[in-house]
Structures are given as structure tokens and as C-alpha cells.
Amino acid sequence: MADSFSLQNVLDSFKSCLSDNKEVFIKYYISGWRELVSFMNSLGSVFSFISKDAVNKIQILENFLVGENGTHYLTVQSMVKYELDNELVDLTKRGIHPESGCRTLLRLHRALRWLQLFLESLRTSNEDSKTSVMCSEAYNASLAQHHPWIIRKAAGVAFCALPYRNTFFEVMNAGSHQEVITLLGEALPMISEVYQITEDLYAKNNLLDLP
Ligand code: 1Q0
Fold first, then answer.
1. How confident is the model at residue 2 (pLDDT cuts 50, 70, 90)?
2. What ipTM does this complex have?
3. What is the C-alpha to C-alpha distance for residues 201 and 75, in angstroms, rounded to an integer?
4. Confidence of residue 5 (pLDDT cuts 50, 70, 90)
5. Ligand 1: residues whose CB is within 6 Å?
6. Which of 12, 95, 172, 199 could serve as a FRET partner for 19 with CA atoms 20 to 30 Å apart?
7. Residue 12 to residue 16: CA distance in whole angstroms
8. N- to C-terminal Cα separation, the chain
9. In its keyword annotation, does this UniProt entry include Acyltransferase (predicted)?
10. Do residues 22 and 197 make contact, with C-beta atoms less than 8 angstroms apart?
């Protein structure tokens, strides 16, 4: 179970992300990303430069969570407060805190917007839709704005290696195509809510452009 991907696991992680008072648990946020990375790894080695970066960022957050100040890293809200109160974030240019929790999570947060757009487009796609086109449109409307030319180029090459929609739906391991579409419909509001709460928190604290 643990090492076989299923869309249901992703949904479960993002469902568990929100506390009763709508704080975002870092533990489940990163377990959602781990699931997604395992999915991406099953698609082939052209994606390994992406999954390496994602794993690296997941690991930075995990280390904070299990580290001596771990209690401050329980939720995204408590992390932001703790790191800002203690001046642990490089706010305008990279300095002595190049790997703060805040800037690391921001990278995944931006990627979550891509995921949201991509999954929505998969959900509403038809048999003739091309995954590579859906993926790059989602990317251009989100993450690409934060990436230099060379990364955008490499991402574009990787997208061309995405399997066809049919295969893609099968790797998601969530039953028939109709079942996948239903599950996507359940997963998306969860993902969107986690995204929006984080976005609002970062905006309120002026953290959306952390270097
Ligand atoms: C399946 C297709 C995957 C497509 C992923 C799209 C994202 C492309 C991103 C390219 C990133 C390239 C690597 C390096 C980037 C870093 O420079 C950048 C900034 O960090 P920093 O430290 O230099 O300031 N990093 C990022 O922007 C973070 C990127 C994280 C990407 C995480 C992607 C995880 C992918 C998951 C696969 C999802 C499959 C979707 C379908 C699943 C169905 C449930």
C-alpha cells in the first residue's frame, strides 16, 4: 500500500491537511507531495530532475518538523509566525537563511497551483485531449512565471514525455475513467482550499515573493 500510488492516497493526505480551525498541517501537506512524487517517478526518468527538487524541498520541511523546534512547524500558520518572529526568513534577497521553511513551502505552494489547474483540466478533458498540452498550459499559467528560461525549457521537454490520457488515468490507480473523474472532483475542492488558505496567509504576511 505504502509504495503503490493511488489518487485516493493523495486525496486522503490533502483532506487531512486542514485542522478544525483551518490551519494547514505540514505533516500531511508533505505526505501529499510524497504521494505525488511517487506518481511522477512511475512515469519515467525524464521527470527525475523535477522529483529531485521536490524531494529536496519535502526533506527540508520534514527536517524542521522532526527537529528541535518541531512544535513550531506543526502548521503552516505556526511556521510563518515562528520564522518571522525570530527573523529566520530572508525577505528580500538570499542571505543567511537560504532554506527557510517559509521560502521552501512557497515553492511547493506555487506547484500546488499548477497541480490544481492540471487536475481540473484532466477532469474536464475528453478522449482526444493531450496530457502534454494540458500540463504545459497549467504550467504556463502558474509555475512558469517563477522559473528561468532554462527550467521552462527542460520542463517543456519533460511534458512531451507524458503518457496519453488513457494510460495516465490507469496509472492513477483509481478504477474506471469515470471513477477517476469522480475522485478528481472530490480531490480538487480539498486541494483548492489548502491552496487558498496558504495563499491568503502568505499574502497577508507579504511572503509571496520570497527569494
Ligand atoms: C507529471 C508531470 C509533472 C510535471 C511537474 C510540473 C512542474 C515542473 C516544474 C519543473 C521544476 C524543475 C526543477 C527545479 C526547480 C526549482 O528551480 C524551483 C524553484 O526552487 P528554488 O529552490 O530554485 O528557488 N522549484 C520548484 O518550482 C518546485 C517544483 C516542484 C514540482 C513538484 C512536482 C511534483 C509532481 C507531481 C506529479 C503530479 C502528477 C499529477 C497527476 C497526479 C494525479 C493525482
1. very low
2. 0.96
3. 12
4. confident
5. 7, 10, 36-37, 39-40, 43, 47, 49-50, 53-54, 107, 111, 114, 135, 139, 143, 151, 155, 172
6. 172
7. 6
8. 38
9. no
10. yes
